[in-house]
Amino acid sequence: MAEKRNARHAVLIHGAWQGSWAFDAWQPWLLGKGWQPHAVNLPGNGWPPLGGQAASLESYVAHVSQIVERIGAPVVVVGHSGGGITASQVAQALPHRVAGLVYLAGMMLPSGMSFVDVVADVQAAMPQAELAGITPWLEYDATRDTTTVRPEGALRCFLQDCKPAAAAGAAALLRPQPESGRAMRNELTADRFGRVQRVYVECRDDRSVVLPLQRRMQQLSPGATCVSMDCGHVPQLAQPALLTELLLPHLEAMLHSHAGPFQALNSSSTSTT
Asked: Which residue ranges form the domains of the chain, and what is each CATH number?
């Protein structure tokens, strides 16, 4: 059954090794401002209802699209980290439903390009840059089909600026991630994805998707409004109040200006805190 059409809805997509719990600290702030958050658990990531199913961009998009269609009203789709890839593809599939996209230190990739490609691109231009992120802290299973993040790595790369108890709790919830859920490339077109407004929340102290990578993705996919924060990889846990304050005007504007699949993309602008 469709939700009330005058409600304000945000669909929240987690990144690798995570689940819907990645937004638990932020959801009360959204609710307090009159937004209805819908945090998803992607297939194949160890959390119900589809935790044991295949992990792929196709399965992710199908699952999230069902949620968006069930809401039955325009939504803002938020992708954290690797969740940005799914967010982009959902907008491609449902531009008439997606009023806007938000990338939280997210993978905002151009069509046909993987995140590994972006890393290689930046490495070639900046040979001395430290771009490894979480990779040194990953453990592979015997078949090298699945990775697990060592807790120490999560605390150093993902959660270093979060309160200790919250960081420890989040690190303990990380689950094995199928490699099929990380090796993804978008297929996007200007007349569908390109019509959806975008905001990129860059996290200047991110040790996972480091700032040069975030900046390069914004260059490769121009047109997104940039909101810049002094925080690590998980702003929704480290600074949920500030994140809400910075994003709310953009979320409201996205819904207000949404007029279906042919809504023109706003010109880019930048705000910095």
From this structure: 8-272 (3.40.50.1820)
